[in-house]
UniProtKB/TrEMBL annotation, chain A:
Catalyzed reaction equations: RX + glutathione = an S-substituted glutathione + a halide anion + H(+)
PROSITE patterns documented for this protein: GST_CTER, GST_NTER
GO cellular component, one term: cytoplasm
Matching InterPro entries: Glutathione-S-Trfase_C-like, Glutathione-S-Trfase_C_sf, Glutathione_S-Trfase, Glutathione_S-Trfase_N, GST_C, GST_Phi_C, Thioredoxin-like_sf
MF GO annotations: glutathione binding; glutathione transferase activity
Single biological process term from Gene Ontology: response to herbicide
Entry protein name: glutathione transferase
GST N-terminal domain ranges (all copies): 2-83
TrEMBL record, chain B:
Catalytic activity: RX + glutathione = an S-substituted glutathione + a halide anion + H(+)
Full protein name: glutathione transferase
GO MF: glutathione binding; glutathione transferase activity
Entry EC no(s): 2.5.1.18
């Protein structure tokens, strides 16, 4: 039935990025757990799927893909007739619309992701796994992220979503880290009027809510 | 309107865009942005890229920022001109494009910024950053080495955008004392020798200050 398998846990931000895309696209999938505590992600079998030993990995009847943003693009390109039709920007052949999505997806990966991932580690994962928090790292990364969010706030004052009028992969890519950060320090997003408006809208999408349900379910 | 590329030839991100334009045999004007004078923070520049970063690409249809979005745009818009840089399965191409941006570039940039770029812009190199990042990048490069033992190019049998996007940083590294990171890995070394011998790359390289 489901010929798509995603390897990893929904608690991993990168995995949850892919799950959000699959729900948006109405593509059925099976989630195969990878026991990181037992080092399964470094096992020879897993390294065949993902040679860097990281989650997620994605497999369908045709091929294997890794890197969450690459998986999202692959899903959009290879299941074009399913679910959300505008995740990659506009209708067929609108290159400028697609380029706008690419541009903001790159901004997410290069500007938003590094400081937000560092903060997610410090604020959520460090306490969870018993590591000591580093106040200097928290302060530096909050400052970097604040600069990025200021740019976003100006953009979202002129544009409904990052790439244009439609919700796209560029917005979706922010959901995993955004969700964790807002739960730890809502002010970061919500004190900025346009970022706050955007965040409320994108995090209320049914596809994202399904991912959060998976994250909140007992992990087994 | 002719193609304009706003940036600097000492910036690896600008070089990425120059490389794709040369692969496509496209004429363009390199418009220098004076970062020391705050050119990237002026309203006219922020109107093109609100992040205040180089490069920015402009042609008759619009403007694009983020070097990897620029290279993607040029490769797609001008697919029928020059080499087709997208000739690979979507799975392999998307994966290795992303691997460059997420796994390879962060540590590699930190190394080449210290060794290659800082000296050109009047800043001093921090060798402990170089050593730390050189240690960390080894595991990433080992994955590349194993992959290139089985694949001629990153996304398969043909040179694609996935290979091209790596070139600025490796070139800058090749001018530094840390090139052994590539040179000591036979398949990485062979791949670099092949792709850097491309006439389009040689045309890019001669215009650079490294």
């Amino acid at each position: 039935m489901a010929s798509v398998t995603v390897y990893g846990t929904p608690l991993s931000p990168a995995v949850s990025r892919v799950l959000a895309c699959l729900f948006e696209k109405d593509v059925d999938f099976k989630l195969a757990p990878v026991d990181m505590a037992k080092g399964q992600h470094k096992s020879p079998d897993f390294l065949k799927l993902q040679p860097f030993g990281q989650v997620p990995a994605f497999q369908d009847e045709l091929t294997t893909v890794f890197e969450s943003r690459a998986i999202c693009k692959y899903i959009c390109n290879n299941y074009p007739e399913k679910g959300n039709q505008t995740l990659m920007g506009g209708r067929d052949g609108d290159l400028l619309a697609q380029t706008s999505v690419d541009q903001w997806l790159e901004a997410e990966g290069q500007s938003f992701n590094p400081p937000s991932s560092a903060l997610v580690f410090q604020l959520a994962f460090a306490p969870m796994f018993g590591f000591k928090q580093d106040p200097a790292a928290i302060e530096q990364n909050e400052a970097k992220l604040a600069n990025v969010l200021d740019v976003y706030d100006r953009r979202l004052g002129e544009s409904k979503f990052l790439a244009g009028d439609d919700f796209t992969l560029a917005d979706l890519a922010h959901l995993p880290n955004g969700h964790i950060l807002v739960s730890k320090n809502e002010d970061l997003f919500m004190s900025r009027k346009n970022v706050g408006r955007w965040w409320e809208e994108i995090s209320a999408r049914p596809a994202w809510k399904k991912v959060v349900e998976m994250q909140n379910a007992p992990q087994g | 309107m002719a193609i304009k590329l706003h940036g600097q030839p000492w910036s690896n991100n600008t070089v990425r865009a120059m490389a794709v334009l040369n692969e496509k045999g496209l004429d363009y004007e390199l418009c220098p942005v004076d970062l020391r004078a705050g050119g990237h923070k002026k309203p006219e520049f922020l109107a093109l890229n609100a992040f205040g970063q180089i490069p920015v690409f402009q042609d008759g249809d619009g403007s694009v920022f983020e070097s990897r979005a620029i290279t993607r745009y040029v490769a797609t818009r001008y697919k029928e001109t020059g080499t087709d840089l997208l000739s690979a399965s979507s799975a392999a191409l998307e994966t290795w494009l992303q691997v460059e941006g997420s796994q390879f570039n962060p540590p590699m940039f930190r190394i080449i910024f210290e060794l290659g770029i800082k000296p050109l812009i009047g800043m001093s190199t921090n060798m402990s950053v170089v050593e730390n990042e050189s240690d960390k990048i080894g595991t990433v490069l080992d994955v590349y080495e194993a992959h290139l033992a089985k694949n001629k190019y990153l996304a398969g049998d043909e040179f694609t955008l996935a290979d091209l996007n790596h070139m600025p940083e490796i070139y800058i590294l090749s001018k530094s004392a840390k090139f052994d990171l590539i040179d000591s890995r036979p398949h990485l070394k062979a791949w670099w020798e092949d792709i850097s011998a491309r006439p389009a790359w040689e045309k890019t390289a001669v215009s650079l200050p490294f």
